[in-house]
Amino acid sequence: MKQFLLRLLRRMGIYHPLQSFYRSCIFYTQRFYLRLQFKSFAGSGYTCNVCGHSYLKFKEDEPAHENVHAIRKWNVIAGYGKNIICPYCMSHARERLVLQVLKEKMDITDWHVLHLSPEKNLYTFLAQRSRVTAADIQPGFYHHITKGVEKQDATQLTYPDNTFDLMIANHVLEHIPEDEQAMREFFRVLKPGARAILQVPYSDELEDIQEQMEINDPEMQSRLFGQKDHVRVYSCNGYMKRLTNAGFEVRFVPYEHLSQWYVYAIQAQEGFFEIQKPVI
Known about the structure:
By secondary structure, the chain is of the alpha/beta class. Helix content is 32%, strand content 21%. The protein has eight helices and 14 strands. It has a seven-stranded mixed beta sheet with strand order 7-6-5-8-9-14-13, sandwiched between helices.
């Protein structure tokens, strides 16, 4: 019955608008109660680099019961823990890390940016400074961010070679079975010398990437990879090797070297992958 209703809503063209409305209702309700709950913690400690509000602590976020096994087994750095969600604007730690990189490490003025599976806060920042192309394989899910989201398959991008100055796909590749093909496509559409921000959940404890590219079992995916639509858990070295094989220059900046950004409540233990297409 559920699948029948989903197909019907999609045929009628109202599935994604209803989803967006539902998500917006949940978001604004949660934000309202978070602001009340954390009012007594306002004024010191961590500062959100999205909205500028400060709190002694941010909201923690823990994995759902069905995802705990994989996250804890491999000690996956996947956006969970203390001080993850800003109580005022509900920005996420993984957004704040990328935002600070954009603010301090890049001058993106007038750049052409490809933003896959766009996140609202990052998209807003980019759109104020750059020419942004937003895209996803299911663009309807992102129409609450911008109506101009294009339909694109990350493994078969339709853009010409050497098009973009920067691309961002934040926590995307762990969803894509043919991730190495996607990496080659990212490399192709970037200009020589262009940058890529491609953060993923990863584990420092794994020697090799754990994956099942053909899996299509949400319950098992949650147990094995920590989310019902993930197909792998990356090892740090394995991820860097795949990016290098695709042609990128990659440097890993460990969490300990990002201490100047701790005040923004970035994800504990999450390092940053500096990724660049070589200049020819």
